[in-house]
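Appendix B. Worked example

We walk through a single record from start to finish. Start with the input: the chain for Cob(I)yrinic acid a,c-diamide adenosyltransferase, Mycobacterium helveticum, length 204.
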Amino acid sequence: MPQGTPPQVPDDGLTTRARRNAPVLAVHTGAGKGKSTAAFGMALRAWNAGLDVAVFQFVKSAKWKVGEEAAFQRLGELHEQQGIGGAVEWHKMGAGWSWTRKQGSDVDHAAAAADGWAEIARRLAGQRHDFYVLDEFTYPLRWGWIDVDTVVDALLGRPGCQHVVITGRDAPPRLVEAADLVTEMAKVKHPMDVGRKGQKGIEW
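Next comes the structure step. The output line below is what the pipeline stores for this chain.
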């Protein structure tokens, strides 16, 4: 794609401007490191463009201090205080959201995850945000806690121009098929392979 020129232009009746402004559904999957990191990089661009950003983390522990979370909280404050960038919301396990992985059976976890997705679906239907990160969302889909077809139908039918990026290993085939942008992270080497622990500033 030299100079951003697509190899072919689809015969869809849309103008170049309309095609450029179409909402994007992105999926970052695969066994390699960097899926969430890449998604947060996209969210940073969205914030800088003045888009309303919302992050929803489905698996990471509430006690895990995620570096990107602290940074985005400061960016949200910057928007509130000086009108720079866009608004930011960050929701994760243990922060009062219904998909919190509490003690209980898989049935309990599945019901909680379904409630969490229902909240996101309501926000999509109401065009609450401009850019959504559904971090590690492939796992409740893979475990059967949330119906893949229901999710894909809601994503394909979302109104307005709401961008969504989903991260996690083993993305379901129907989600991959529905997405506009799919990146598979492949691991070549990792420090943990030789017994090194995760490092501050690298893993969190």
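Two observations about the output. The chain has a mean pLDDT of 86. Residues 101 and 109 are 6 Å apart (CA to CA).
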